[in-house]
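Form 12-C: Joint structure prediction
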Amino acid sequence: MSGISDLGYARLDTSRPRRQGLPEVVYAPGKQVGEIAGIADRLLAEHPGPVLVTRIDADAAAEVLEQVPGGHHDPQARLLSWRPAPTRDFRLAVVTAGTADGPVAAEAAAVAGAIGLQVRVERDVGVAGLHRFLAVADELAAADAVVVVAGMEGALASVVGGYVGCPVIAVPTSTGYGAALEGVTALLGMLSSCAAGMTVVGIDSGFGAALAAHRIALLGERR
Amino acid sequence: MSGISDLGYARLDTSRPRRQGLPEVVYAPGKQVGEIAGIADRLLAEHPGPVLVTRIDADAAAEVLEQVPGGHHDPQARLLSWRPAPTRDFRLAVVTAGTADGPVAAEAAAVAGAIGLQVRVERDVGVAGLHRFLAVADELAAADAVVVVAGMEGALASVVGGYVGCPVIAVPTSTGYGAALEGVTALLGMLSSCAAGMTVVGIDSGFGAALAAHRIALLGERR
Amino acid sequence: MSGISDLGYARLDTSRPRRQGLPEVVYAPGKQVGEIAGIADRLLAEHPGPVLVTRIDADAAAEVLEQVPGGHHDPQARLLSWRPAPTRDFRLAVVTAGTADGPVAAEAAAVAGAIGLQVRVERDVGVAGLHRFLAVADELAAADAVVVVAGMEGALASVVGGYVGCPVIAVPTSTGYGAALEGVTALLGMLSSCAAGMTVVGIDSGFGAALAAHRIALLGERR
Amino acid sequence: MSGISDLGYARLDTSRPRRQGLPEVVYAPGKQVGEIAGIADRLLAEHPGPVLVTRIDADAAAEVLEQVPGGHHDPQARLLSWRPAPTRDFRLAVVTAGTADGPVAAEAAAVAGAIGLQVRVERDVGVAGLHRFLAVADELAAADAVVVVAGMEGALASVVGGYVGCPVIAVPTSTGYGAALEGVTALLGMLSSCAAGMTVVGIDSGFGAALAAHRIALLGERR
Amino acid sequence: MSGISDLGYARLDTSRPRRQGLPEVVYAPGKQVGEIAGIADRLLAEHPGPVLVTRIDADAAAEVLEQVPGGHHDPQARLLSWRPAPTRDFRLAVVTAGTADGPVAAEAAAVAGAIGLQVRVERDVGVAGLHRFLAVADELAAADAVVVVAGMEGALASVVGGYVGCPVIAVPTSTGYGAALEGVTALLGMLSSCAAGMTVVGIDSGFGAALAAHRIALLGERR
Amino acid sequence: MSGISDLGYARLDTSRPRRQGLPEVVYAPGKQVGEIAGIADRLLAEHPGPVLVTRIDADAAAEVLEQVPGGHHDPQARLLSWRPAPTRDFRLAVVTAGTADGPVAAEAAAVAGAIGLQVRVERDVGVAGLHRFLAVADELAAADAVVVVAGMEGALASVVGGYVGCPVIAVPTSTGYGAALEGVTALLGMLSSCAAGMTVVGIDSGFGAALAAHRIALLGERR
Amino acid sequence: MSGISDLGYARLDTSRPRRQGLPEVVYAPGKQVGEIAGIADRLLAEHPGPVLVTRIDADAAAEVLEQVPGGHHDPQARLLSWRPAPTRDFRLAVVTAGTADGPVAAEAAAVAGAIGLQVRVERDVGVAGLHRFLAVADELAAADAVVVVAGMEGALASVVGGYVGCPVIAVPTSTGYGAALEGVTALLGMLSSCAAGMTVVGIDSGFGAALAAHRIALLGERR
Amino acid sequence: MSGISDLGYARLDTSRPRRQGLPEVVYAPGKQVGEIAGIADRLLAEHPGPVLVTRIDADAAAEVLEQVPGGHHDPQARLLSWRPAPTRDFRLAVVTAGTADGPVAAEAAAVAGAIGLQVRVERDVGVAGLHRFLAVADELAAADAVVVVAGMEGALASVVGGYVGCPVIAVPTSTGYGAALEGVTALLGMLSSCAAGMTVVGIDSGFGAALAAHRIALLGERR
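Section 2 - Result
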């Protein structure tokens, strides 16, 4: 635990690939385009793995790509990535309750894809029409992990968590209005779920869910 | 809208049976045994229908019954009642997510029974084992109304509300700990539910759910 | 419980009319115009009833109507609808506390109308001038159900709920400022109301209230 | 603004009668019986007006009265008082929504009485039976000020505030359960009321309401 | 309690002047310019007193004034008023903690002025420099009522409330950032104040404070 | 997904071992001793795996063991268990920030042990003395998963999550007072952690963390 | 940064005196008497400075003192201490708003005294009688640091912070009821204070304030 | 405590330099450019020390500088300052957890610099890569005070507070999203920190932290 690369405006943790199998992921908000490009450039030079920038809009991504070519921008996921990891033997299912959860699911899927997980997305299986869930239930149960992306009351997480036996990572989203409280309602519901052994990440954090899946995938590889 | 019966310690609304088909229901906490007995006595004299006291414990109920005989105390429901209404043509299903929701469901069922609804209780059909719900789903769909009693994340309400077409009244309960926030999590979840047209009453208010069902039953009778 | 129509971007629950007497209602925010048109088109093909899109602004509605003609856009209610249901024998009263509650009441009224309920709206009967309520009280009591739309402290709901005997559905609105907390104050007040048997839907959810009334109306028809 | 009487365990503000027409009122919780007696003794010596101790239970009150005789303990109001003020020309109406609001109303009434206001209490006029309010409305409107004591959703405050023209002081109480949130719901509702010009004091603060009325009464006397 | 004037879009309470000495005050947000003009026009016709529209911006005010001439718009207070009341024998002091509280104080002062109170504003006497308060303390104490306008922690209210003997109406403002929580911190602080007998109105409600003062002024006149 | 065993007071999901490799775990609060014994008895009969009862105190455990002998009660963990699973090839590290987090860690460790995980507990490595963490850091990094149990501000979770590469499950605890808000502060902190890919379970839910680890362990076994 | 003393039930940070001039302070709640005694014994052996146990009641303190003699228990402060530090050249003023803040102030004063600060306590100088503050203002201004202990709205902190130029550490207390929200109101108020450069510690944390003062005192000594 | 300079729109506390060693700092939001210039002009005339305007954007700053030349605007810190104080013998370390905390740290550093403290900023040492902290730990420990600027969960504050012995001032920032709750999560975490003797200022208040450091620096000078 020792590597640091100091760019003045950022202090990169260059030993993270060794500790966690992945370099630092860059969070774009609050950073200048030049800073993002500089960090990406350094990360690409320091190690051979994928380099990712999250929550970046199309204009900033285009500017960064001019300075650091060779990357790819996924506008729905707001992800900029270079040098995706080779495909791993790990099947991640990402399932959403409704259409409005799409951008968060897209971030989860895009990040997971860039770091080598095999991702399948099942959209719009909210529990208000339970047979939509039942139609994909066995497919979800066969995955190596499931990411459940749901806003409003987040009930899909409990239904998935109660059905499948694999690790379930719930992502509350800020969709809905009024009593949905910008995702807090879904978050509290997922943490209080009657489905035992489910875990939760932060509101709208598709990124966090993908990295939690990555930790599980790594574990399978090292054993 | 005019009847009042003033007992000094209480000002009874004696025109409520005419307006709403039911006399005032007495909420026991904060009232003296003598006051409860006095109110019950007066209500029994003022009109011919059922008289109910909610949230009353066994000791107080026994004392009241000595002064106003002929009633019945249901300890789990904490309900004291006299002169139950004749059975109406209205089938109410009360369904709970787990065992801990029992007392709230008991209050809903006992109040509903005392005011003449036909009640059937289905216990412990939480969504963590979805087939438990599926086993009773068609029975619930055949009811005239369903009361869903659930704590923790309250997901059962969304599943029921999305399945059945009849009126659904959700009762959040204060079961669970930590992020369940004494019922607030279930309450917010039920209000944000993806299942359209479901309605919600206050936390732990089995009483409120029974009276909401009563309003619907009355409607059917007067039409 | 089996019908699904998969459009790729949406997974329609086509058995909902059979279960609940009404197809899925489309929530516009977060969906592309082309997606909304595609869903509406499919729903119109799948069953003979009304098709509704909520929370859609005028520009998007016009674009959708070019692709799926024959519908109607109500700008205050932000509702786009095709093929309204035949009028049912059910009188719904929608009552508001103040002018600012208008858009939510308009959504409730327009959705209820499109699904066949007979709707009458009484505006601006806030309890600060109680005689305004008294002037319409008996009319409200004669309705088959009342939707109360109120922001700020939401006291109108308690007054209506205490007066009428029919089902009362309270809709808290996000009108008001400061301590009104974007509708949370009205929501909590309605849930804590001293008027027994009232039910509540989510903040600003005129749509939810209309569908709750629809469930009650259906019940009357099937009995 | 200068008088201080230092008892070691308390630093009395002896110029308060000159500034506000009333000595410090002693809040009992957290104080020793001996301290309360010592403070009362000193206040009785320092000025000729009434001396009050709030929130004191019967046992502590009896002990204090042994050391400082001549006072009176009102158990429902939890008030200990010596030397009540002469009756002033100011009629205060205290009105409660329900029986459970009784102790807070009792505190308001007892404090107001001890400082010379003429107090009339109207109990149990909750808006669920609006005619109970209408029966006393003109009497309330004729008072010099009205204190409204209400828990749950606190709607009575809006109804009173909209009817009468005199100063209205609303006291939210912690009665109710669940979504009543220990009085926070009533508090928020009263602050967001549609009835203009109403003011609010802290949860359960019958004492605060009485002193607010006292300020208004003083104003009338000095003009 | 009987007068109603129904404009279709609004149901005016025309008996309010008789009950409360002042017609309804119009809250502009959410109303069309034509509606505001229509209401103002009707109110001017119905009774001889002042007519007020609050929270109205300059453009809307100008449009309304074209339709209903003779009024005056105060841009800082966002108040539009016609026919100010004659000056009453009541001196209201409005005091602010800081410059940012200015607009709320301006609303309080302008409304109070339009309804006939004599208003004096003391700005920027925050307790961080206590001698600024001490310099005006005796002037405040000589007023008939004091409105304290303060954001952040709202401590000025406690200092004023502890010093003066006249009625004190505290208005929390949404100034400040972070832990000031949009005025909730000041609101809670004012409600919990150690200064007894102070009352509180809603966040940023200069209007509410002015009307509370009006009630007190009326009381003095009728006695 | 079909097995149900109906005991009247409980509806057991007997297909859970097939779906999730473990029978239902019994949550004791709110259940009668006889009910707990009945459920345990049935679960022991239905399948060959471990049977667990959580949150049960010593007296109730002793009574249950009289009726269903052969089990073991761990008082600190409040866990009653029969027939522990054979040891699996999965090393779980449980680490606590302070002594007060002990009972939650004990529950996590005891549940994990009963279902076959190899558990090692490292106590009292709070970040206020960072070298305590550094002394065990490499041991934690070598585990197959780490459960971090921390109250107050929960900072240990971020430090562990940033160091190790394996799955990290954070358990906020309700230790601490004041601004710790009964575990909500730690919960929010863990969800907002700068350490990517960490997941969180409910407040004080050592049980939830153990079952989340179980899901990961199962995954390794089936691959 | 290296010393650890592992007692099994606790992992002592023995390098803390070198880093921070003071050994770990033991927080009693949740620890066995034997554990407290064991930790105290070890800390006394490891270094020559003062050893402190906070939040310990009289019975537990007596038992610990039997095993580890020579210490002193202060019941109001709930502090058990051995070997107080020699008096330092640092004058700390502890000031309280009211009597109920006494126990928190006592903890601050007793801890500060045990670690060598010169402490003077000024009680009951709440701003409701501002001259009480003015009487001690210059004395406070002459201290090396001031700890302000206040509950309810916590306004005293702003008044002190605006007057004195030395470091001010504000301690919100959980005194008060209703809107005081168990100290959260005072906490938020102190953090939002208009008095610049004041700092805040946790609710009821007299201990935290004393240690913050200790850090300042150490700084003066090492310079 | 007596100096006041009344500008009409502001009431300057001109004795503050004598009490606290620094004139009032001007908070720009809500003030007109002309008012800011007028206040700055007066402050520059009244005393010889530094004059500061915080939270001012580039355009307003340029306008003010035209009227009151000789100052300097730091755009990242949003600080406008004239006549910086001579350098004092006090080394302040400002440390941030991440890049997004930059503006708050910049404000702290710029204000501290303008009032004479020697400031060193260490950026981006978040605990997710703990060795980044360890690399600067001894440098921080050698400072006279440390300001820790951190958002999200704010864990860096606990790590710094547990390591160094000098005064630590924690500044929560509103960086992060979802469960970070606009800085409230970091704020609560810092107040609940396991690192004893740390103090906290308001969310995003780099200014407050700098002034807290100034109080400590003054103390060292006067001793």
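Section 3 - Comments
The interface with chain H takes residues 1-4, 9-11, 13, 15-16, 24, 27, 29-31, 35, 172, 174, 182-184, 187, 202-205 of chain A (CB under 8 Å). Residues 5 and 42 of chain A are 8 Å apart (CA to CA).
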